[in-house]
Amino acid sequence: MRTRLQQHFLLSTLLTVACSPAVALAQTGWMACPVPATDKTSGVQRPGNLSPQAVYIEADTALFRSQGISTMSGNVYISQENNKLAADRASYEQPAGIVTASGGVSFSSNDMQVRSRELRYNLPQNTGEMLEAEYDLSQANGQGFSKRVIQESPDLTRLEDSTYTTCPVDKPDWSLNASTIYLDHHNQRGSARNATLKIRNVPIGYLPYFSFPLTDARKSGLLWPTMSTSERFGLQLSVPYYWNLAPNYDLTLTPSLLTNRGLQLGTEFRYLTEKHRGEASYVLLPNDSESDRDNRYYFNVKNDTHFGSKSSLQLKAEGVSDDQYFVDLGNSLEATSVVNLERRLEYRTSGQYWSFSTLLQDYQVLDGGIAPHARSPQLLVRYDPPQTYNGLNLDAETEYTNFTGSTTETNGTRLDFTTRASKRFSNEAAYVKPSLTLRHTQYQLDDADNTQIDRTVPSASVDAGLFFERNIKQGRYIQTLEPRLFYTYTPYRDQSNIPVFDSSARSLNYNQLFAENRFTGKDRIEDANHLTASVSTRVQSPEDGRELFRASIGQVYHFDERKVTLPDEAPLQGDRSELILEAAGEINPRTRLSTTAYWDSKENSVNAGEVRVNYKDDKKRILNVGYAQRKDNFESANLSLYVPVNEHWKAVGAWERDLQNDRNLETVIGAEYESCCWKTRVASRNYLLPDNNTRENAVFVEFELKGLGNFGSGTRDLLQNRVYGYE
Known about the structure:
The chain is mainly β. Helix content is 2%, strand content 60%. InterPro entries: LipoPS_assembly_LptD, LptD, LptD_2, LptD_C, OstA-like_N.
């Protein structure tokens, strides 16, 4: 007959084991490893009327004594709070409070399960040991074996001759073996001595001392080394060291060996407080053996400070030692294509209907071009109250900017004031929105024929549209038809004597059809007398509002010649713009198509166009195909894919080709292997540098061990940037 004994003893947790950085594995999308066999303690239910601190004992036979040793045998079960213990035989000694168990000992808690041959534990002192213990960690999905587990104190556990892995314990692809592992539960940190990392039982690395957090909390120590190779800097081996200086700031030092260039040191400091957050990084190459330049460096500083809920200060400063730094030492096509680096300091604040900002801005130019003017400073005030005067919208903006720093162009100050009034008349089927804008600008210039220039330009526009909709496919979908007209009139003002501080021509696109001014900035105001006509249609699902298809077509009709230009540019000709067509939609739930075309109605030809097809299914197969061209300028095609070959292997690739010059711009070929406890990615990349002659070859290799992190190069980042939809 089963015997149940209840005593109000505080049965402390027998053992807590954690290993290697406890990674939030749900965020990494790993395959599921086989679940260990169900623990023996899961089949017994603790009575619900017991207090959590009560010790509940159940066994086939038992002899209980108030003093001395109580013995239990046959399916022994002991529970207290969230801890459960099962064994073939057990004894409890009073008043010492010592539990001894043997024969199929099984212990489980919220975080772990342990199976061992023998257990001896002192309940009052929270000390004891387990022999030949197999453990499973629910938090990190890890498991292992330890010949001897010693609970030295409530907060310190020692494991002797232990292994740890996140693979199936009977067939581990990788494991961490250590002579001794210490687990400091109070500080949530662990350390291993004489640690060996094994892949398929083959040792690949040894550390006499290895320190790690027991949770995902940060901890000082060496990070996994990274490796990459390039024709410009050879093999690069980096070994980062991370300092967790405080919970809210840290420092990472990264010494790197570049076999073709020398030793490099990188630093990164990050901080986060109630009002401030930011980071500062600095990379130094003292002696570059491939260049006559020494002390080559790169720095990047970012800071964001908030003064209450409506005021903030942002700092961004980036710079390099010389204009060839990214060409020689950049590790991506984007980096080698950088032409200038910005430094800016901006303060913003706002009230109920107004906002104010001040800006200091400068640039470091890397391509030998003309440096943009520095702003020192720019002051900007905006006023945007709610609707007044029977729905009339009024807003105003004032900007003062001091443009300095140019040695080839005119410097000076600019004061600009803009006010705008508009009102929208609308119902469910139509709207009309007339607007009036007045802009007044004053210039005070240095070293110019006219040191003081004034310009006042009014502008008027009317935006009108209709909405039609109908049910299609027996009401499964809704189709809309949305014609729109947009008229703008701005009189001509001669602006040829005004310098260009920050204006440029906007690229024509569908949204630009409805803009009053084709120039950015404030130095050029377009003379306009034109009408935009467009129509859009959409197909939507009424159940969830999902847009299944969208198509738009529009064109601008000019009634007067356009005279305002940028310096050294001829006035635009023609009484109409290109006809712009856009379409995007789902071919099926797995495939989406998007396209844009610029049609020259006079020449009956496509001046520019782009087509993209994106495919992704439930099996995570990805295929992206794209084509783009601009008449007499460029023509290119791109292809990227991600194809699972079987359960473990995936092939990945990306290709971009310059069709006009018959050459490859970039080619990436790679493979990915994934099991339930480790991944590896390998990629080869060949791409054209900005000089349009030199090609760069690089090889990327990355390993990721579930529960230990990843080491190698940034292969995953490369593939995510090159293959749309890759995760």
